[in-house]
Amino acid sequence: MAINQLTVFVENQKGSLVKITEALAEANVDIRALSIADTQEFGILRLIVNNNEAATKALTDLGYIIKNIDVVGVKIGDAPGKLSKALDILDKADINMEYLYAFLTRTERHAYVVIRVADNAAAEAVLTENGFHIITDADIAKL
Amino acid sequence: MEQRYYQPEIETMPVEQLKKLQSEKLVKQVQHVYDNVPYYRNLMDEKGITPADIKGIEDLHKLPFLTKADLREAYPTGLLAVPQKDCVRIHSTSGTTGRRVVAFYTQHDVDLWEDCCARAIVAAGCSNEDVCQVAYGYGLFTGGSGLHGGSHKVGCLTLPMSSGNTERQIQFMMDLNATLLCCTPSYAAYLAESLKEQGYKPEDNKLKAGIFGAEPWTEEMRRNIQDALGIKAYDIYGLTETSGPGVAFECSQQNGMHINEDHFYAEIIDPDTGEVLPEGSKGELVFTSLDKEAFPLLRYRTRDICVLSRKPCACGRTHIRMSKPMGRSDDMLIIRGVNVFPSQIETVLLKEGYSPNYQIVLDRVNNNDTFDVNVELNPDQFSDTVGGVTKQEKALAAAMKTMLGINPTVHLVSPKSIVRSEGKAVRVIDKRKLIDSNQWKG
Questions:
Q1: Considering its fold, how many domains does chain A have in total?
Q2: Contacts with B385 from chain A: Cβ below 8 Å
Q3: pLDDT tens digits, residue range B56-109?
Q4: Does A74 lie in the same domain as A42?
């Protein structure tokens, strides 16, 4: 069920992100969502894209370290309190989150939240039980 | 009356007489070594040299060199030249497993070493009226014991502080009116900084001199320390293999270090050919002990590059002077007083499952060495969280600390991001600019 996230190790150097985004553009890859965790010296770029294979190849060819990992994607109503509810469900189920980030699309009245947990299946199960819609790579490709 | 020399008859001995003394001692030392150390005997037999061939200093060049590798191979007692029961102490190099050298001392050896340190203390203008704060580490390291023993010989009140615990150092320095400080130059600079932070001015302490060694330092650093502590700062040189600090020391002229030539004979050689170079040439320093009992060394290659000068010195000492070491003829680095070989970093990386693509970056900030190691990250080790990467960096730094004894800052970097020149990665970038001694004219 889970969706694929491209994780890229980026040193904090001028022009790094330009290089990455240009390479993705040339490979005709659409970025659906993006998040960066950074320190003074390095950053970890997390990407949800429409074509994982093309993106992985483009960046690996440039010498970047890429890790493809599964994360949980949840569709959330674009209204106050919806995200809070989803997080509360995970918390009550004792599922710890490493990080999360969200994105919107132009066409739908929904927000999407990407959540990194240790146990994807458990998180997806408890969210589904509580009426949330879990998205897949196929959904991402259609967005 | 001001004491100018600790052993005036030796320290100001006319050069011709000194050379005669060295020759006599060398002949005995070679015989002692040949008779008592099978390792040397085999080495000399292989070269077809007998002790009878060495009639004086002029024959020294006939003997083979001894290297650190030979010493390691002989670990722990292979070069011991007296029965172990005649020894009273050991010291050891700061090296790590496989690189450690153990040096043995009889009471005679300890005495001559402490005499050397006592000469350094008197040359720094001190006497039995002084209070000597020894802030070198005590233990296997020779720094603490050497200056401690020298301080006793001179009759100073000795404060055996050992290294670290800055609060206590400052308390004893101020409360007991220390007049002489012995430690590494970087620790002296750190102490000066701490004193300033606590609101002390240079004139508030009673220090008049400092004897600083065990790591390279510059004239600029000397000026900084002198100004910050209101003292004269003197360099001291030595290595565990030969005994410890005090093999050579600076006098009031602060212009090169007088080698204690009655105990240690110095040669400068071309590190590539082994050829002995004339006085004033830059090359590798080689030492021969002249009267050690337990751990005598013949033609030991220090790997330190320097220059010797026999120009007369205004202090009246006749012993030859050496410049500060200007570099190394091997790849050893001295970081915060600790000897580090790049290969040790490589060993840790391989052991921890990293590729051996690394770069050491050294700099000096506020008179302290910074030690950074950039390591190329492996794709299969990449964690997707900041905490994960930081944890890896810390674990690597801890593994290096265990190996080296000092703490680097580890930075994981992208694969192939470490600069390669002509296909070969540049392993060390040393920005410490310690080469001002290159101008030394003796």
A1: 2
A2: 37, 44, 98-99, 116
A3: 999 999 999 999 889 988 889 999 999 999 999 999 986 644 568 899 999 999
A4: no
